[in-house]
C-alpha cells in the first residue's frame, strides 16, 4: 500500500471514493449525498492543489483518503484539522487509516502544527478507538451535535498535542 499526497489528477478517484463512503458508511461523515453532489469539482480541485488531501493506494486504485488543513487565521494556524477519513471495505484491516493519519500528522508538523484535531461521530466506536490508539484524546463533546436520518448523535472532539 502506497500513501501519498493527492494531486489534482486524483480528483475523479477522490470524489468517487468519497461518494461511495457517504453511502456505505454514513456514520463516518457529516456530508450527505445531496451536499456532496452540490459541491463543485473546482472546490475539491483547489483542496487537492493546496496539498490537503492524502490517499492510500492499492496499486493504482485509491482505497483510502483523508483531508487535513489549518484554518486561515494566524491565531489558529498551529492547529490542523483532519476531516473525511475513509477506507474502502476491501482495504480495511491493512493499516491504511493509521498510515494515512501518520502521513498527515508528519506533513502538518513540517508546516508548524502544534496540535491535530478532529471531530468524530459519537456512535462510531471503531474510529474513536483508532484515534485513541494513535494518541488522540477526547477534548470536547457536543451532545446531539450531529443529525443523521432524523436522529441526533453526539459529536466528539479529539486532539493530539505535538511536541514543539
TrEMBL record:
Gene3D superfamilies for the chain: 3.40.630.30
Question: Which InterPro entries does the record match to this protein?
Answer: Acyl_CoA_acyltransferase, Bact_Acetyltransf, GNAT_dom
- List the keywords (alphabetical): Acyltransferase, Transferase
- Pfam families this protein is in? Acetyltransf_1
Keyword Zinc-finger present in the record's keywords: the answer is no
ATP-binding as UniProt keyword: no
Q: Kindly list the GO molecular function terms attached to this UniProt entry.
A: acyltransferase activity, transferring groups other than amino-acyl groups
Q: Where is the N-acetyltransferase domain?
A: 1-163
> What is the protein name for this chain?
N-acetyltransferase domain-containing protein
Amino acid at each position: 500500500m502506497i500513501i501519498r499526497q493527492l494531486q489534482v489528477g486524483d480528483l475523479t478517484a477522490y470524489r468517487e471514493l468519497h461518494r461511495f463512503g457517504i453511502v456505505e458508511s454514513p456514520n463516518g461523515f457529516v456530508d450527505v449525498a445531496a451536499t456532496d453532489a452540490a459541491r463543485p469539482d473546482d472546490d475539491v480541485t483547489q483542496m487537492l492543489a493546496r496539498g490537503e488531501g492524502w490517499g492510500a493506494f492499492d496499486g493504482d486504485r485509491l482505497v483510502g483518503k483523508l483531508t487535513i488543513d489549518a484554518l486561515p487565521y494566524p491565531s489558529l494556524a498551529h492547529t490542523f484539522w483532519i476531516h473525511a477519513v475513509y477506507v474502502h471495505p476491501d482495504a480495511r484491516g491493512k493499516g491504511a487509516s493509521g498510515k494515512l493519519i501518520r502521513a498527515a500528522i508528519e506533513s502538518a508538523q513540517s508546516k508548524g502544527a502544534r496540535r491535530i484535531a478532529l471531530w468524530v461521530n459519537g456512535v462510531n466506536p471503531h474510529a474513536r478507538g483508532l484515534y485513541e490508539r494513535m494518541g488522540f484524546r477526547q477534548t470536547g463533546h457536543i451532545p446531539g451535535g450531529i443529525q443523521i436520518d432524523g436522529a441526533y448523535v453526539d459529536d466528539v472532539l479529539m486532539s493530539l498535542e505535538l511536541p514543539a
